[in-house]
Amino acid sequence: MSRIGKKPVAVPAGVTAKLEGHTVAVKGAKGELKFTAPEDIDLKMEGNMISVSPRGETKRARAMWGMSRSQIQNLVLGVTKGFEKKLEINGVGYKAAVAGKTLQLSLGYSHDVMFPIPAGVTIATPKPTEITVSGADKRQVGQVAAEIRAIRAPEPYKGKGVKYVGEFIFRKEGKKK
């Protein structure tokens, strides 16, 4: 039995949820999000609660049970509070700035990297060495943050590059002469 899957998802006041077949549509202050559950999952809406249950006792149905419940919970949290990822830039001369709908990154390359900001995500730079990615869709926020980090991932000798706030970078010792 999935401990996560057994818990119903509460839909708070100010949020509307619609259930059409296997698709859940949630609308709130931060926008509208949808999730289509796998065929192995049954969805039921009772009042302001959405419950998830497996159709059968197959291994796939049990695996999708908890995942589907978590996805629906993330939809509800996304349209109420939203999600945020923070990145920090380490390195001499490394910096970031938002210019219109692009993020301009100076990361030690021969040119500045222009990263287009996708729809549904907001990027802010409170300091030139900090980047905040926020939005309603948890997947999209995580994906955009990962793409920014991949432009110049932190290297293991001096730790220069873009990393998540609080991320531990395993450091290597340099060559000895």
Structural overview:
It is a single chain. The protein has 2 domains: 3-80, Ribosomal protein L6 (Outer Surface Protein A, domain 3, Alpha-Beta Complex); 83-164, Alpha-Beta Complex (Outer Surface Protein A, domain 3), CATH 3.90.930.12. It contains 3 helices and 13 strands, in the order αββββββαββββββαβ. It has helices spanning 3-6, 59-80, 138-151; strands spanning 9-10, 16-20, 23-28, 31-36, 41-46, 49-54, 83-90, 95-99, 102-106, 113-116, 121-124, 130-135, 161-164. It has a 4-stranded antiparallel beta sheet, covered by helices on one side. Strand 11 and strand 12 (130-135) form a beta hairpin.
Task: Write a compact overview of the structure shown.
The chain has 177 residues and is an alpha+beta fold.
Q: Provide the CATH superfamily of the largest domain.
A: Ribosomal protein L6
Largest sheet report: 4 strands, antiparallel
The whole-angstrom Rg is 21 Å
Strand order, largest beta sheet: 11-12-7-13
Entry keywords:
single chain; 177 residues; alpha+beta; Outer Surface Protein A, domain 3; 2 domains; four-stranded antiparallel sheet; three-stranded antiparallel sheet; 13 strands; 23% helix; 38% strand
Give the SSE layout.
Layout: H1 3-6, E1 9-10, E2 16-20, E3 23-28, E4 31-36, E5 41-46, E6 49-54, H2 59-80, E7 83-90, E8 95-99, E9 102-106, E10 113-116, E11 121-124, E12 130-135, H3 138-151, E13 161-164
